[in-house]
Specification:
The structure holds three protein chains of three kinds. Chain A is of the alpha+beta class. Chain A contains 13 helices and 16 strands. In chain B, the strands form three sheets. Chain B has a seven-stranded mixed β-sheet with strand order 10-9-8-7-11-12-15, sandwiched between helices. By secondary structure, chain B is an alpha/beta fold. Classes of the chains: A alpha+beta, B alpha/beta, C alpha/beta. Chains A and B meet through strand 6, strand 7, helix 4, strand 13 and strand 14 of A and strand 1 of B.
Chain lengths: 368, 276, 257
């Protein structure tokens, strides 16, 4: 099942067309307003061909890249998250009746989605969200409906952004799980390998033939080179204990002086799952929708209980976010909540870098 | 496949005023199937929905052996409970649950039980005390400790007096600032523990302000009660009650599904840091 | 009996009252739920108080209005302010940093007929306010949600978090990160649906300060973006310039200059 095949770049249009015919809404990274996000595509020409991203803490630019390179942009602010865990969606419709009310679930009726150009870190993030919305004590019906029929075409990273640290989080740069088909982009075409029976069937439909050893070796070499060249690192050794023991490290107050508490990091994080459910009621009072919206532990309301705020200071909230992401998440769900995608670094207007914060806390541990 | 947020209409069949601002509502599910399927353990809670306004977590105070009707005691404290104050017999509310772990009533069987509460009354322990009285022979002596700032804060005064008359039950009350009506002890709640005659094998269950419970845990420890034999009900913002919305996190715990009752051993370290 | 609702205007442009009219069908349905007994923008005849619910638009800028708002408060069981003028003093609060005499003479041919205060102040500086709806103008959906909540007898609630949360929910590209555009989003209360960033412009702060904000860090961010001190000061001293966190931050920037 892991046999690698050779896929000409032109076959990408064929793949998109087949997926479309099979009833999928085909999504890929699309350049818009100076970044990329997953959006509907009709052909490979809708992808950011010949464009690369330049990322650093608090800064993101798209710039001309290499002619003909299709997957030159590593990532943008938008991960897979909004396509499964919707930013805002009505869950229930509650209608007043003569005596009381009736609550009905609102089912979303979207066609299954196929995603082309998904990075390894984002697949890892989706698996983490699955753990929360599907494999915990309760299952989320709205998430499950979109999740169960989705098709994923992964792209191995042969280039990293300076904000990436997936090697430290062991989620990339090569896609290892959670995809139907994985591509490695070489200058002259893709090396494609299946990750599921559906992916194997797709290889047959595309009429791809086995890749030569040289192509496979070239693909491996590019991915390995990307891993070796990844500039950013996070030392994850004994992380829960370190952050638990350092709950009163002065560094939390130092980072809080820079933190805007604006919540951008949590919005772009592909694993952050906090949400709130509010009533949107018709003015005549006869029908109310219970609507779920993304929420954030950086908002003041998040830890508010009648008259008391349990995390009133920015340092309380930053500590909650980072400690949850990197430490208590492991206790709760068996893995770190961080996949090393670097979005929280790039999209923080103040340019706060969590890898730097962890390193600083580690360096000053036990001295408080 | 239903969303875990689906709420079930339930009709209020009785309303009782406990004291100003605290009401107990008895509800019955409108749908017979929902009624038949509902089972709960002592100390679990439901999410109660006010049409168009919102949901709040409320503990179930009635007995698990009578699941046909459920009793919830609601203290008027915020915007949703503010609306609930106006509810009356015949009104329909939303109920989903039960959630949370409940009190360790099985573990407590055959042992003395120490119940510590403080502040403005605490509905979860009223349900617990009633549970034990209905199964009196299964438990050892019952020690109820309750501290209030001022005598006016002592809600359920008649109830404490009634409990004190029960066999094998001792009630210890104290206030920081007594007035003429006060004929119980004077002093902070921790001083009550000087009088407490409970063996080291007792099990303790607490509900109230966290600072009070922390002090009580230290006092009980001094009586020889083990850290993992002391339990406290914690309050956090609970919106979903199913461990998905993220609000009630207390470091590694989701208070809604891992709690709301925690052993002192599980949370002792956490209580040392503020703002977690 | 249906609750009696009144809408009052103080120093303002009427834009927030217009949100009632913009509500269209919703307003007609509201008229079935409540008696709108005073609303100069929509009906000629005014009915006397008391009122169950009073909406107040505008700031206090004249001695007469300073007296009138006290009367409104006395006649109203629940008082909700609508808009930036009522909550923060509005754009007209720019006079709070200027010489009102000079303005009066410059603007009016016969300044002796103009009776005005030297400041424009929010309603909450004069009377107790039960709830504030922010925005310039306010958001129609928020207005209806607050009204509905009050009809249910519930204290209203609106999000106090940053515009960034709404902006990211909408899938907008951050104008600060992708273009270095100055944007008040990180320190501004949500409510507009991130209207300006969706149009590729920075946020102007129409909804006032978010509950959680860090003005020191935000001022540092503007400086990093190359926004000069006096420019940064003017950005904060806009529609909601007189509200405390922004006033203090802008004053600090002015002092530095």
């Amino acid at each position: 099942m892991n046999e690698a095949t050779r896929m000409p770049k032109a076959a990408l249009d064929n793949l998109i067309a087949i997926l479309g015919r099979e009833g999928y809404r085909v999504m890929g990274p699309v350049a818009r307003d100076g970044t990329v996000a997953f959006d509907e595509i009709r052909s490979a020409a809708d992808l950011p061909v010949g464009i690369r991203d330049a990322q650093e803490a608090g800064r993101y630019r798209l710039a001309p890249g290499i002619d003909g390179e299709i997957f030159g942009v590593v990532n943008g602010a938008g991960s897979l998250k909004p396509h499964f865990f919707a930013p805002a969606e009505p869950l229930l419709e509650i209608r007043r009746e003569r005596r009381g009310f009736k609550a009905n679930e609102i089912a979303s009726a979207a066609p299954p989605h196929a995603f082309i150009g998904v990075r390894a870190c984002d697949l890892a993030a989706l698996a983490i969200q699955d753990r929360i919305f599907l494999h915990d004590r309760f299952r989320d019906a709205h998430y499950e409906l979109r999740r169960k029929d989705a098709f994923f075409v992964a792209v191995d990273c042969t280039r990293s952004a300076p904000t990436c640290f997936c090697v430290s989080m062991k989620t990339g740069p090569r896609a290892t799980a959670g995809f139907d088909l994985a591509l490695t982009e070489l200058p002259g075409g893709f090396v494609a390998r299946p990750g599921s029976p559906a992916g194997e069937a797709m290889i047959v439909k595309l009429g791809l033939s086995a890749a030569g050893g040289a192509d496979e070796a070239a693909a491996r070499a590019l991915i390995d080179e990307c891993a070796r060249g990844m500039g950013r690192r996070m030392d994850t050794a004994d992380l829960p204990r370190l952050l638990y023991d350092e709950a009163e490290n002065p560094r939390w107050r130092e980072v809080a002086a820079r933190c805007l508490s604006c919540a951008n990091c949590t919005m772009v994080c592909p694993t952050c799952f906090c949400h709130t459910v509010i009533d949107q009621t018709e003015i005549d009072g006869n029908m109310s929708r219970r609507v779920r919206k993304w929420d954030s532990c950086f908002s003041l309301e998040h830890a508010h209980i009648h008259g008391i705020n349990l995390r009133p200071k920015i340092h309380d909230r930053y500590r909650q976010w980072l400690t949850h992401k990197l430490a208590s998440w492991i206790d709760q769900f068996g893995s770190s909540g961080c996949v090393g995608c670097g979005r929280c670094i790039t999209w923080c207007p103040a340019g706060i870098d969590l890898t730097e914060e962890v390193a600083a806390i580690r360096a000053s541990a036990g001295k408080g | 496949m239903a969303t875990p947020y689906l709420t079930h209409p339930a009709r209020i069949v009785a309303r009782r005023t406990e004291t100003a601002g605290i009401y107990t509502f008895t509800t019955r599910f409108v749908d017979p199937a929902a009624r038949a399927a509902f089972r709960f353990r002592a100390g679990q809670f439901n999410m109660i929905y006010a049409f168009g306004v919102g949901e709040v977590p409320i503990s179930i105070v009635s007995d698990p052996e009578d699941p046909a009707t459920l009793e919830h005691t609601i203290r008027i404290a915020g915007r949703v409970t503010g609306v609930m104050a106006k509810w009356d017999v015949g009104d329909v509310v939303g109920v989903r649950g039960p959630y949370g772990n409940g009190w360790p009533v099985e573990r407590a069987r055959g042992r003395d039980v120490v119940i510590v509460t403080g502040g403005l009354g605490c509905a979860p322990v009223v349900g617990l005390i009633n549970y034990i009285f209905r199964r009196r022979d299964q438990y050892g002596d019952l020690h109820i400790l309750h501290g209030v700032k001022t005598p006016n804060d002592l809600l359920y005064r008649e109830r404490f007096d009634q409990w004190r008359r029960e066999p094998r039950t001792r009630v210890y009350l104290t206030t920081d600032h007594p007035d003429k009506s006060w004929h119980y002890r004077i002093g902070v709640v921790t001083e009550l523990f000087d009088e407490l005659a409970a063996p080291a094998s007792a099990i303790a269950m607490m509900c109230g302000p966290e600072a009070m419970m922390r002090l009580a845990a230290h006092a009980l420890r001094a009586k020889g009660i083990a850290d993992d034999a002391m339990f406290m009900s914690l309050e956090r913002r609970m919106e979903c009650a199913v461990g998905m919305c993220g609000h009630c996190q207390y470091r590694e715990n989701f208070v809604c599904k891992d709690g709301p009752v925690f052993s002192w051993r599980a949370v002792k370290e956490l209580t040392r840091v503020s703002g977690l | 009996m249906k609750p009696r609702v009144a809408v009052f205007k103080f120093a303002s442009c009427d834009g927030c009252q217009l949100q009632f009219l913009n509500a269209g069908d919703e307003l007609l349905k509201l008229a079935g739920q409540a008696d709108i007994v005073y609303f100069p923008e929509a009906r000629g005849r005014a009915l006397a108080g008391p009122y169950d619910l009073a909406f107040v638009e505008g700031s206090v800028t004249t001695p007469a209005d300073a007296r009138r708002i006290i009367e409104v408060r006395e006649e109203s069981r629940y008082l909700v302010t609508i808009g930036a003028c009522a909550a923060a003093g509005g754009i007209q609060a720019l006079r709070n940093w200027a010489d009102i005499e000079q303005y009066r003479r410059a603007v009016y041919p016969s300044p002796e007929f103009i009776s005005t205060l030297s400041t424009s102040t929010p309603i909450s500086e004069h009377v107790r306010v039960d709830f504030e709806i922010w925005g310039c103008p306010i958001d129609k959906t928020q207005l209806l949600a607050v009204t509905r909540s009050l009809l249910f007898g519930a204290q209203p609630v609106l999000p106090g978090h940053s515009v960034c949360i709404e902006c990211k929910r909408s899938g907008n590209a951050c104008v600060i990160v992708t273009r270095g555009e100055p944007c008040l989003g990180p320190v501004t209360r949500a409510g507009c649906g991130a209207l300006c960033p969706a149009m590729n412009r920075g946020c102007y702060g129409c909804f006032g300060p978010a509950d959680a904000h860090n003005m020191e860090s935000f001022a540092a961010l503007l400086a990093d973006q190359g926004v000069r001190g006096d420019d940064a000061m003017r950005r904060l001293r806009g529609i909601n310039g007189y509200v405390r966190p922004w006033r203090e931050s802008a004053d600090a920037l002015a002092a530095k200059k």
